[in-house]
């Protein structure tokens, strides 16, 4: 059994997945537009070129998603990224925070050299937690 993540967007899936692929060094695996899907005749006006379904691979994790006319913001989850170094944590945090809302600035904690929480400009919550442990004092 495997577990993967599925994200719903309100018309910004293509931009979000392009951002995640670039920032997280991922690979685009699959995409299907509404006009190509079995639901083509049910697509809202102007949504023919929106993504009905897309999949990217980041490390060993599959992230799937699509544009689904969501009415509510996501709740109760966060995508957790574990960069190997504080510099990589800063790069990822700053890129995902661009246009989003920082909930906890990237900072040293007793368990991490770089930990921060944000919601990106697409409404997806992220937690950045550097794998490099702080130096013992």
Topology:
Layout lengths: L4 E5 L3 H11 L3 E7 L17 E8 L2 E7 L11 E3 L4 H12 L3 E7 L7 E5 L5 E5 L8
What does this structure look like?
The strands form two sheets. The chain has a four-stranded mixed sheet, covered by helices on one side. Strands 5-8-7-6 form a four-stranded mixed sheet, with helices on one face. It has helices spanning 13-23, 86-97, and strands at residues 5-9, 27-33, 51-58, 61-67, 79-81, 101-107, 115-119, 125-129. The chain is 17% helix and 34% strand. The chain is an alpha/beta fold and 137 residues long.
Features:
137 residues, 2,3-Dihydroxybiphenyl 1,2-Dioxygenase, domain 1, Signal recognition particle alu RNA binding heterodimer, srp9/1, 17% helix, 34% strand
Structure at a glance:
It contains 2 helices and 8 strands. It has 137 residues and is an alpha/beta fold.
Give helix and strand order, one letter per element, not per position. EHEEEEHEEE
CATH superfamily of the largest domain: 2,3-Dihydroxybiphenyl 1,2-Dioxygenase, domain 1
Percent strand equals: 25-35%
| Strand count | 8
């Amino acid at each position: 059994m495997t577990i993967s993540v599925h994200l719903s967007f309100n018309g910004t899936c293509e931009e979000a997945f392009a951002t995640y692929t670039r920032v997280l060094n991922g690979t685009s695996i699959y995409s299907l537009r509404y006009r190509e899907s079995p639901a083509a005749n049910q697509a809202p006006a102007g949504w023919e070129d929106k993504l009905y379904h897309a999949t990217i691979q980041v490390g060993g994790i599959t992230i799937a998603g699509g544009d689904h006319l969501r009415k509510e913001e996501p709740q109760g989850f966060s995508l957790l990224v574990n960069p190997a170094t504080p510099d990589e944590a800063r790069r990822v945090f700053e890129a995902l925070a661009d246009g989003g809302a920082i909930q906890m600035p990237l900072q040293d904690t007793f368990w991490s050299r770089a930990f921060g929480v944000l919601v990106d400009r697409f409404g997806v919550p992220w937690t950045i937690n550097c794998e490099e442990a702080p130096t013992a004092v």
